[in-house]
Amino acid sequence: MGTLIAVEGLDGAGKRTLVDRVTARWEADGRRVATMAFPRYGRSVHADIASEALHGEHGDLRSSASAMAMLFALDRRDAADEIRDLLATVDVVLLDRYVASNAAYTAARLDQSADGDAVAWVEALEFDRFGLPVPDRQVLLGTDPELARSRATSRAAGDSSRAMDAYERDTALQHATFAVYRSLAARSWRSPWTAITGSDDADVLAAQV
Questions:
Q1: Are strands 137-141 and 193-196 parallel, antiparallel or unpaired?
Q2: Using CA atoms, how far apart are residues 116 and 207, in angstroms rounded to an integer?
Q3: Distances, alpha carbon 95 to alpha carbons 53, 69, 181, in Å
Q4: What is the DSSP string of 163-207?
Q5: What is the C-alpha separation between 180 and 178, in angstroms, rounded?
Q6: What is the model's pTM?
Q7: Domains identified in the chain and CATH numbers
Q8: In this model, does residue 95 exceed pLDDT 80?
Q9: What is the pLDDT of residue 158?
C-alpha cells in the first residue's frame, strides 16, 4: 500500500511547483509516484460548477459557504476509488490540495477557527460519510498570504484561462484561511503535518517526508 501525502496552502503558494519538483526527485530515486490536483477542473462536474460560481455564474450559489464546500467535497468523493486504486499500485500518491483545504476555507468564510463546527462538519462529511482515504501526512506550504496573492495576480495576468476567482481576490479570506491552516497543522489534524516555508526546496521536503 502506498503512502498518501497532501500538500496544502493558499492560492499562489506554489503547491503545483512543489508537487512537480518533489515528484521528479522521488522518481529519480526510483519511487513510483502518482499525483492528483483538487479541484479536478475539467474532469468533475462538481468542480466545474464550483469554479463557475466563483467566477460569477449560478446566481447566489457562491454566497453559501456550505454549498461551495459540498461541491468541492463531492468532487473528492468521486475521486475516492481512483485514489485507492493508485495507493494499491504506487509508492506515493501526492495530492495538490485535499480535505484540509475545504476545512480551512469553509471555516475562514464562516469566521470560525480550526476547532469550530465548520471544520468538524467537513471532517465528518468527507472522511466519515464519503469514506475518503485519510492522508498519511499533510504538508503546509506556508507562503505568506501577500506573496501568494502577488503570485496569483501575476499568474492570472499571464494566462487568461487562470483569471482570479472570488476566493483569490478576497485578501481578508486568504489571511483568515492561512490562520486556520496553521492551526490545523499545529493540532496535527487527522494526521501528522510538516510545515515548510516557501524558501524550502524540493530536496528539503523530500528528506522531511
A1: parallel
A2: 33
A3: 24, 18, 16
A4: ---HHHH-HHHHHHHHHHHHHHHHTT-SS-EEEE-TT--HHHHHH
A5: 5
A6: 0.90
A7: 3-208 (3.40.50.300)
A8: yes
A9: 63
What amino acid occupies position 171? Answer: T
C-alpha cell at 93: 500518491
Judged against a pLDDT cut of 80, whether residue 200 lies above it is answered with no
Give CA–CA dist 119/122, Å, rounded.
5
Residue 156, pLDDT above cutoff 70: no
Amino acid at position 186, single letter: A
Q: What are phi and psi of 82, to 5 degrees?
A: -65, -40
- The residues pairing with 194 across neighbouring beta strands, listed in sequence order, are 139
3-state secondary structure 114-164: CCCHHHHHHHHHHHHHCCCCCCCEEEEECCCHHHHHHHHHHHHHHCHHHCC
Query: Is it the case that residue 207 has pLDDT exceeding 90?
Result: no
Which DSSP letter does residue 60 get?
T
